[in-house]
Amino acid sequence: MPSVPAAPATLPRYTAPMQIADPLGVPGAPLETLQAVLTHLEGADLTGGRLILVRDRQGDRGDARYGAVLVAGDSAVVTVPAFGPHYGRAGAQALAELTRWASARGMPVRETAVNPADLVRVLAEPGADEIARVIAASNPSDPAIYTALPPQRPDEDDWEA
Protein backbone atom coordinates (compact mmCIF):
# COMPACT_ATOMS: atom_id res chain seq x y z
CA MET A 1 0.00 0.00 0.00
CA PRO A 2 1.55 3.34 -1.04
CA SER A 3 2.10 5.82 1.71
CA VAL A 4 0.37 9.15 1.58
CA PRO A 5 2.70 12.07 2.17
CA ALA A 6 1.91 14.01 5.30
CA ALA A 7 0.43 17.42 4.86
CA PRO A 8 3.00 20.13 5.39
CA ALA A 9 2.90 21.67 8.81
CA THR A 10 1.53 25.17 8.76
CA LEU A 11 3.05 27.81 10.88
CA PRO A 12 0.91 30.42 12.51
CA ARG A 13 0.86 33.46 10.30
CA TYR A 14 1.85 36.69 11.99
CA THR A 15 0.35 39.84 10.66
CA ALA A 16 1.37 43.18 12.01
CA PRO A 17 -1.43 45.32 13.35
CA MET A 18 -2.87 47.63 10.74
CA GLN A 19 -1.82 51.26 11.02
CA ILE A 20 -4.93 53.41 10.80
CA ALA A 21 -4.71 57.16 10.47
CA ASP A 22 -7.29 59.42 12.11
CA PRO A 23 -10.33 59.80 9.85
CA LEU A 24 -9.95 62.41 7.15
CA GLY A 25 -12.52 64.97 6.14
CA VAL A 26 -15.54 66.79 7.42
CA PRO A 27 -18.77 64.80 7.86
CA GLY A 28 -21.25 65.77 5.16
CA ALA A 29 -18.72 67.92 3.28
CA PRO A 30 -17.87 65.90 0.17
CA LEU A 31 -15.54 68.29 -1.66
CA GLU A 32 -13.52 69.13 1.44
CA THR A 33 -13.23 65.44 2.33
CA LEU A 34 -12.16 64.50 -1.20
CA GLN A 35 -9.49 67.21 -1.12
CA ALA A 36 -8.26 66.01 2.28
CA VAL A 37 -7.87 62.45 0.95
CA LEU A 38 -6.08 63.49 -2.24
CA THR A 39 -3.73 65.79 -0.34
CA HIS A 40 -2.99 63.15 2.32
CA LEU A 41 -2.18 60.47 -0.26
CA GLU A 42 -0.24 62.68 -2.67
CA GLY A 43 2.99 60.87 -3.51
CA ALA A 44 2.09 57.78 -1.41
CA ASP A 45 3.02 54.31 -2.64
CA LEU A 46 -0.35 52.75 -3.36
CA THR A 47 1.02 49.56 -4.93
CA GLY A 48 -1.38 46.72 -4.16
CA GLY A 49 -3.83 49.14 -2.57
CA ARG A 50 -7.59 49.06 -2.79
CA LEU A 51 -10.50 51.41 -2.27
CA ILE A 52 -13.29 50.10 -0.09
CA LEU A 53 -16.48 52.12 -0.14
CA VAL A 54 -18.54 51.77 3.02
CA ARG A 55 -22.22 52.66 2.69
CA ASP A 56 -25.13 52.83 5.06
CA ARG A 57 -27.83 51.06 3.07
CA GLN A 58 -28.08 47.58 1.65
CA GLY A 59 -29.58 47.59 -1.83
CA ASP A 60 -30.29 51.34 -2.01
CA ARG A 61 -27.43 53.27 -3.58
CA GLY A 62 -29.74 56.09 -4.68
CA ASP A 63 -29.70 57.87 -1.32
CA ALA A 64 -26.75 56.19 0.37
CA ARG A 65 -24.11 57.86 2.50
CA TYR A 66 -20.57 56.64 1.81
CA GLY A 67 -17.28 56.75 3.61
CA ALA A 68 -14.09 55.21 2.30
CA VAL A 69 -11.26 53.01 3.51
CA LEU A 70 -8.15 53.13 1.35
CA VAL A 71 -5.84 50.23 2.14
CA ALA A 72 -2.22 49.93 1.03
CA GLY A 73 0.05 47.41 2.71
CA ASP A 74 -0.46 47.49 6.46
CA SER A 75 -1.86 51.03 6.43
CA ALA A 76 -5.41 52.28 6.07
CA VAL A 77 -6.77 55.74 5.49
CA VAL A 78 -10.38 56.19 6.60
CA THR A 79 -12.74 59.02 5.68
CA VAL A 80 -15.76 60.29 7.52
CA PRO A 81 -19.15 59.77 5.81
CA ALA A 82 -19.17 62.52 3.21
CA PHE A 83 -19.67 60.90 -0.19
CA GLY A 84 -22.63 59.74 -2.21
CA PRO A 85 -26.04 60.91 -3.38
CA HIS A 86 -27.28 61.52 0.17
CA TYR A 87 -25.08 64.64 0.15
CA GLY A 88 -26.56 65.97 -3.09
CA ARG A 89 -24.87 66.55 -6.40
CA ALA A 90 -21.55 67.44 -4.74
CA GLY A 91 -21.61 64.15 -2.81
CA ALA A 92 -22.23 62.10 -5.95
CA GLN A 93 -19.55 64.06 -7.80
CA ALA A 94 -16.96 63.58 -5.03
CA LEU A 95 -17.72 59.85 -4.93
CA ALA A 96 -17.22 59.67 -8.70
CA GLU A 97 -13.92 61.58 -8.49
CA LEU A 98 -12.59 59.41 -5.66
CA THR A 99 -13.47 56.27 -7.62
CA ARG A 100 -11.84 57.58 -10.81
CA TRP A 101 -8.73 58.62 -8.87
CA ALA A 102 -8.38 55.14 -7.30
CA SER A 103 -9.03 53.36 -10.60
CA ALA A 104 -6.42 55.49 -12.38
CA ARG A 105 -3.88 54.21 -9.83
CA GLY A 106 -4.81 50.58 -10.38
CA MET A 107 -6.66 50.24 -7.10
CA PRO A 108 -9.60 47.83 -7.28
CA VAL A 109 -12.88 49.19 -5.97
CA ARG A 110 -14.75 47.18 -3.37
CA GLU A 111 -17.89 47.90 -1.39
CA THR A 112 -19.50 46.88 1.85
CA ALA A 113 -22.73 47.95 3.53
CA VAL A 114 -23.07 48.44 7.25
CA ASN A 115 -26.05 49.17 9.43
CA PRO A 116 -26.92 52.88 9.14
CA ALA A 117 -26.55 53.27 12.89
CA ASP A 118 -23.01 51.85 12.69
CA LEU A 119 -21.71 53.91 9.77
CA VAL A 120 -20.58 56.92 11.77
CA ARG A 121 -19.23 54.81 14.63
CA VAL A 122 -17.19 52.57 12.33
CA LEU A 123 -15.70 55.46 10.37
CA ALA A 124 -15.34 58.05 13.15
CA GLU A 125 -13.46 55.82 15.58
CA PRO A 126 -11.87 53.17 13.39
CA GLY A 127 -10.19 50.37 15.30
CA ALA A 128 -8.01 47.76 13.64
CA ASP A 129 -10.52 44.97 14.33
CA GLU A 130 -13.45 46.97 12.97
CA ILE A 131 -11.56 47.96 9.82
CA ALA A 132 -10.43 44.34 9.35
CA ARG A 133 -14.12 43.29 9.44
CA VAL A 134 -15.02 46.00 6.90
CA ILE A 135 -12.26 44.78 4.60
CA ALA A 136 -13.28 41.12 5.01
CA ALA A 137 -16.95 41.89 4.31
CA SER A 138 -16.22 43.94 1.19
CA ASN A 139 -17.06 42.66 -2.27
CA PRO A 140 -15.62 43.58 -5.67
CA SER A 141 -17.60 46.33 -7.32
CA ASP A 142 -17.77 47.93 -10.74
CA PRO A 143 -16.36 51.49 -10.60
CA ALA A 144 -18.93 52.59 -13.20
CA ILE A 145 -21.63 52.29 -10.53
CA TYR A 146 -20.09 55.27 -8.75
CA THR A 147 -18.87 57.36 -11.67
CA ALA A 148 -22.23 57.75 -13.41
CA LEU A 149 -23.85 60.78 -11.81
CA PRO A 150 -27.50 60.35 -10.86
CA PRO A 151 -30.08 62.65 -12.43
CA GLN A 152 -30.44 65.97 -10.69
CA ARG A 153 -33.18 65.96 -8.07
CA PRO A 154 -36.07 68.42 -8.46
CA ASP A 155 -35.19 70.02 -5.12
CA GLU A 156 -31.60 70.77 -6.21
CA ASP A 157 -31.25 74.20 -7.69
CA ASP A 158 -28.38 75.33 -9.86
CA TRP A 159 -28.09 78.69 -8.12
CA GLU A 160 -25.08 79.78 -6.14
CA ALA A 161 -25.23 81.89 -3.01
From TrEMBL:
Highest taxon in the source lineage: Bacteria
Pfam families: DUF3197
Alphabetical list of Gene3D superfamilies matching this protein: TTHA1528-like
Lineage, broadest ranks: Bacteria, Thermotogati, Deinococcota, Deinococci, Deinococcales
Protein's name in the database: DUF3197 domain-containing protein
Native species: Deinococcus aetherius
Spans annotated as Disordered: 141-161
